[in-house]
Write a structure and sequence with these properties.
about 90 residues; mainly alpha
Length: about 90
């Protein structure tokens, strides 16, 4: 699959293709070379799906912030400020 094709795919289409790749790999009928190619294609699809999920999460977060009052936004910023150092220590 070409890289440009994967950029235009929906999450659902990419996930469906990933499921097909997994089925082909699990069948054991692919040669080693074909298995590696399928695996690499699958890795690309996983990255694409993760990117799409991150976009949705970001858009949802932005929409949530836009719908909040100024007081709620201030509280959210304070919460993020308090939680961020904790999250950095976990890395």
């Amino acid at each position: 699959m070409a890289a440009k094709e994967s950029l235009n795919q929906t999450f659902e289409t990419a996930l469906e293709q990933l499921e097909q790749i997994v089925e082909r790999l699990e069948s054991g009928e692919l040669s080693l070379e074909d298995s590696l190619a399928a695996f690499e294609a699958g890795v690309g699809l996983v990255k694409h799906c993760n990117q799409k999920l991150n976009e949705v999460e970001k858009n949802k977060f932005n929409a949530t912030i836009c719908n909040k009052s100024l007081q709620e936004k201030k509280l959210l910023v304070i919460q993020i400020f308090l939680i961020f150092p904790f999250l950095e220590k976990r890395k």
